[in-house]
Amino acid sequence: MQEMLFQEEGINFNDYPARFKRGAYVQRRTFEKELDANRLAAIPEGKRPAGPVLRTGTVVLNLPPILKLANRVEVLLDGADPVLLAPLAQPSEPAVRCP
Fold first, then answer.
1. pTM for the predicted model, two decimal places
2. In the list 16, 18, 19, 74, which could disulfide-bond 80, CB 3.0-4.6 Å?
3. DSSP at 78
4. How far is CA 96 from CA 4, 93, 99, in A?
5. What's the 3-state SS for 40-58?
6. What span, in angstroms and rounded, lies between the C-alpha atoms of 25 and 58?
7. Is the pLDDT of residue 10 over 80?
8. DSSP state letter for 36
């Protein structure tokens, strides 16, 4: 398929960002934010926060292909750092066939 795109249309699939090739993973995260003077003025005096407030937002995760992760569930659901699966070891000697 990729070869056909390149030969017929001159499109190199590998030049596209990962999110176009594999999709994007988005995660909701909580962060602290300082409110500016205009925002604080709009809040009734008795309910104004004294310091930073908690807000949520979404972030796009920059991940390798999901099947190469050892901890897929933890990364996607718990916000853990990705751990790559160990590559398969290549046998040092060819397999011997028994007669």
1. 0.58
2. 74
3. I
4. 40, 9, 10
5. HHHCCHHHCCCCCEEEEEE
6. 10
7. yes
8. P
